[in-house]
Amino acid sequence: MPLLEVMLSCVIWSGALAAGLQLWGRGASQQQSNAQRATLIQEIERDRLRLIKHWRALPPRSCSDGDQRFLEAVAKDQPTAPGLRRVLELSTSEPGLWVRWSSADGSTVLRERLVTAAGLGLCTQEELA
Prior knowledge:
Blueprint: H1 3-56, H2 69-77, E1 84-90, E2 97-103, E3 109-115, H3 125-128
Antiparallel strand pairs: 1-2, 2-3
C-alpha cells in the first residue's frame, strides 16, 4: 500500500473518530442536563405540595376583599429546596398569588401557578353560596 493511501486512510479514520467522540460527548451532556431538569421538576412538585399543605391548614376567612397577602406570608416562611428558586408575586389582574419556580440561577421559569384562597377552599361558606 503506498504511503499516500496510508496517510489518507489515517486522516479519514481520525476524522471519523473525532466526530464520533464529539457526538458521544454531546449525548452524554444532554442526558445529564435532562436528568438535572427532571430532578428540579421533582423538587418543584414537592415544594408545591408542601405549600398547598400549609395553605390548606389555614382557617377559613373572608375572601371578598381580595387580600391574598396571607398566602404570600405563609409561602415566605417555607424553605425552598437547594438548587431551586421560588418567586412570589401578587396578581394585579385578579385576587391571587403567582408562584414561579426556576433553577437557582433563575435562567428559566420551569413552573408557574396562580394560587387563590377560593381555589384552596379557604373562603367561608357564606361567600361561596
